[in-house]
Amino acid sequence: MRFIRENTNIPVPEVYDAYTDDETGHVCIVMEKVEGQTLHEAWPSYNDADKETVVQQLRGYFNELRRLKSPIISCTDGSPCDDQYFDDDIGGYGPYTTEESFNQGLVRAWTKGREDDALIRFLCRTLLHNMQGHEFVMTHNDFAPRNFLVRASQVVAILDWELSGYFPEYWEFAKAIWRPDWDSPWMKDDLVERVLDPYYQQASVILNTSYTIW
Hints:
By secondary structure, this protein is of the alpha+beta class. It has helices at residues 2-7, 39-42, 48-66, 99-111, 118-130, 171-176, 185-188, 191-195, 200-213, and strands at residues 15-20, 27-31, 37-38, 74-75, 136-139, 148-151, 154-158, 165-168. The chain has one domain: Aminoglycoside 3'-phosphotransferase, Chain: A, domain 2 (Alpha-Beta Complex), CATH 3.90.1200.
């Protein structure tokens, strides 16, 4: 969050301290408390004008985020990727210097223990064939209204940056539509597609593969 605060105009809480708890091994963050309610809570009460105001703010912030680019795919600090699509082998995926090697990492994670499954191997070949030629941009990697704090129709903070990093440009969109609540008011209002540039083909490949595996 300090990196985002120092390099963008995106509203994030100020971080006062970060440390590892000696007893649990958990990383703890002491940060500013920002007053507001989550967009998940507020969205149903908005009229159309309020919704559009929030959409335009979020779109501006995510466009600003995407202007931060990297020659590698990694966490924000250049360390290995941290993402739900990878397994629990922390530190075992990346950083990647090419999109091809990132795709190979996904395939390795998704086929682990299922190398003989012909359908999964076919879907992974589809991924390897289609996912090429993307820029590596800063990605929040957990786009969800529960992570956006608002007061009235003003976005006052974007939270939960622990999975952020540099990923292929389609990644934010593909992850945002990975298992959301499709019956929620914000999904029915197409919030993801209104805020983020859509990458339908790439999202289709990722979702089809991941849904089949899981």
